[in-house]
Amino acid sequence: AVLPAEQGKGIGQKLVHAFLKRASMQGARQVDLTTDLDDNEGTNLFYRQLGFRLERSFTTPEGREMNQYLIDLS
Question: I need a labelling partner for 18 at 20 to 30 A (CA). Which of 26, 33, 40, 74 fits?
Fold first, then answer.
């Protein structure tokens, strides 16, 4: 997470790109992540703008609505 005062400066994007590069260098072909669906449009938009695609939405056993995203590294 990036501090609210620092958001919008590209820090999160740089962190995600560095992670994806490292994952690719170590042989990963895909990365998936899960984030909250409800009241979280900024985060969901952030990952979509980075190239993640929505794989599925689901509800946890506790009733939490989630989105699962996937990105191909190849």
Answer: 40
Radius of gyration for the chain, computed over Cα atoms and rounded to the nearest angstrom: 13
Question: Distance (Å, rounded) from C-alpha 21 to C-alpha 19?
Answer: 5
Instruction: Find, among 21, 73, 66, 38, the residue nearest to 52 by Cα.
Output: 73
Give the global pTM: 0.88
Domain containing 38 — which CATH number? 3.30.70
Q: Which domain holds residue 43?
A: 29-74
Other beta carbons within 10 Å of 72: 10
Cβ count near 37 (within 10 Å): 18
